[in-house]
Amino acid sequence: MSNIFKSCIDSIEYNDNQFEKNIRLTGWCFFDEGKVAELSILVNKEPIDFEITSIHRPDVLGLYQFHDSFEKIGFVITVPLEHIQFLKKVDVIAYSKNTSETIYSLSHNLLHKYHNRQVFHYSIDDIKNNHGQIVVSGFVYVPTLEHVTIELLNKAGRSVEYTYVPVRRSDVVELYQLDSNDKLIGFQVIFTSVDPKEAYSLKFIYQNDELIIPIIESKSVFSLAKSYIRAANPKRIQNAFNYLTREGFDRFLERLKKGPSQLSDPNGPLSYDEYHEWFNTMAPTSKVLESQKKYHFEFAPKISLIVATYNTDPSFLKAMIDSVINQTYSNWELCIADGSSNNQVEEYFRSHYDDQRIKFKRLHSNLGIAGNMNAALELCTGEYIAFFDHDDLLTPDALFENVKVLQNKNVKFVYSDEDKLISEIGIYKDPRFKPDFNLTLLRTQNYICHFLVVSKSLISRIGAFKSEYDGAQDYDFVLRASEVLKPEEIYHIPKILYHWRMHQASTAANPESKLYAFTAGKRALEDHLMRLRLQATVEMGKSLGIYNVHYEIVGNPLVSIIIPNKDHIDDLDRAIESIQEKSSYRNFEMIIVENNSTDESTFDYYKEIENKYPNVKVVYWKDEFNYSAINNFGFEFSKGDYILLLNNDTEMIEPNSLKSMLGYCQLDEVGAVGAKLLYPDDTIQHAGVIMGLGGIANHAFVNLNRENGGYFNMAFTASEVSAVTAACMMIKRSVFEEVGKLDTDFKVAFNDIDLCMKIRKKNYSIIFDPHALFYHFESKSRGLEDTPEKIERFNGEIERFETKWKDILKNGDPYYNPNFSLRYPGGYYLKSPDEFYANRKEQGGDH
Questions:
Q1: Which residues belong to any copy of the Glycosyltransferase 2-like domain (predicted)?
Q2: Domains identified in the chain and CATH numbers
Q3: For 725-737, what is each residue's pLDDT tens digit?
């Protein structure tokens, strides 16, 4: 096999049905350093016209260390066969300037294995089982792009109820050059399996054609290709080529069908156990690092890194110092203040380093963490100060990435993402991918942490570290900074630039080793709230390092609870009674918006409930169903300064829910607050909304157990989010009126998300409050919801939302780190390299 061309076939389709007769080949081919090869096709040794779509394959370019190349080395080739009577052989020829080579030869026997007389093109991309809650994700379409009906079958062949979620699959549309992106060819099938031994299948139906696919064991060509992309590395690719050369294409293809080895779940989201490999794959290449060293910044400020050492292990000290020396940006100084109880650190430093950029000061005594850091600060001459721990490491591009941001001289405060390093074995783990600046989250935990670079002018303004908060001196500093900084002066770099070393004495490995730090953090937070004259109590949270803030209610404002209802009086009664009986906050009114009920018993119930509770009022909506209009109608009858939009299928769990939501909603900067909603089985139904997840927007932490805090305990902590569901949303009356209430163009879907977007556009915050807790009896298995009318309406509202809020969908949710995938329910899974580079290509380069 020649070394000129590198190539691979990912999938082969031989389609022969009423709509199409062709061969479709998906793969990639390049020569030199990622240059595109010209291709031609021979059928039965004769040239033939064919269609080719060139596509980006950043997964392959990345694996071959061509990260800076945007050549479209991938292809989808469609070879028409309508006029071919006997198909014997297909050859794919690659050309460069003066060389050609047959890179694939597909015999009749091999093609016969892929002979497909079905009309369906499909993939089962992901099968996820969360304690019996099954989510099957994939796509299916027919050449006409007409609707395909999906049924879920058990092993007896009987239909099973499930929730159907249509999904837009732009990746498939682009890959196969389908005529329209408006068709929701993707799907999620969600159902509950009570018997772990039960086997399930999906049944695709189009006109007279049917196809049954076992979903637990199935691996489509599409999903297999994805799993190989995820598992691939240069060594594996070389092994694959060796196997192909040695064993031939037929046996190679059989080996491909088995899937890559040593993957925990080749069809599902990446596990955080795979993070070490992920980090090494995504890290800048040596070529990129060399180009950074040569780059000339227009503004090249000196960065002073301050470090307080105390009896530091010499090997840790060396690694820390070397990680600074190896920076691709060179205008730095390292300022070390040593408060050690012996001379070991000083002797090691003096005997091993002679770099004028490193300043070392031996302190006469240990001044504590804050005191030692302040001593290091006194050595600084830089315009910007970076905080660095004595046993941690920087990535080589850490300072370069910060200086890139500091070209905007308005920025005074830059933080980035971090992970942990297992010291003994050199493995990276536990990446901390952070949101953009989130004040509410900061008041529950010091999520800023490392790596932090601030202007020296900011320190002059707010002061240095304070010894009374030793152990949490950095948290106190960040809280004080948040009190004076404007939003445009804070910048988050969503890249891992800092490795927090885990060893026996470190907080990273053993948080209990510094319990005093969490107590100091609580004091720092209390003092921060006191300086801002915010009346609140702070308590330790469910996990070390997180805090719960409970804001006191100012006055006794009226809360108007608006509940739309059509029949379902059992649900409505449960919602009403739970609040009437449990709520610790008592100044509320309930406005039930009757919406075209047909059961006589419903109207009898209305009379009973109004007689029973003087604060309950029923009003009557006479027009067609329009969720937005119905709630707006109910609002006209309300008297409260705060409005709670509430579904009739909810039940209050936590008696302090209204009080907690009202405490947040009374803050000047807050526009709306959403509650934590649980399914009846005590798994999460809503913990905030992530924009772009699954296409438009989806709920965070769906199906997570209520006792699980999720990614870095964010299901336990209050935080700013882009949106919350109106199944339980509190909003200031003034803000509701200011933004024009709910948009009646969104009759069923996205009306609450649209409302939140309008609130945020007015610079108010949206808060997820985990201490406001309700059940939401929205069924996990509601049956098929894919009638043509519903799909048409749903498509229309998708298009309307995408047009109205295209910027946030394009730029991403600021509270959801771009290193997280947008593909999987609940969010907070690692973004795979293929998804990452696809996004990078869409945005036109690296960011």
A1: 304-461, 560-739
A2: 5-116 (2.60.40.10), 121-218 (2.60.40.10), 286-510 (3.90.550.10), 559-811 (3.90.550.10)
A3: 999 999 999 999 9
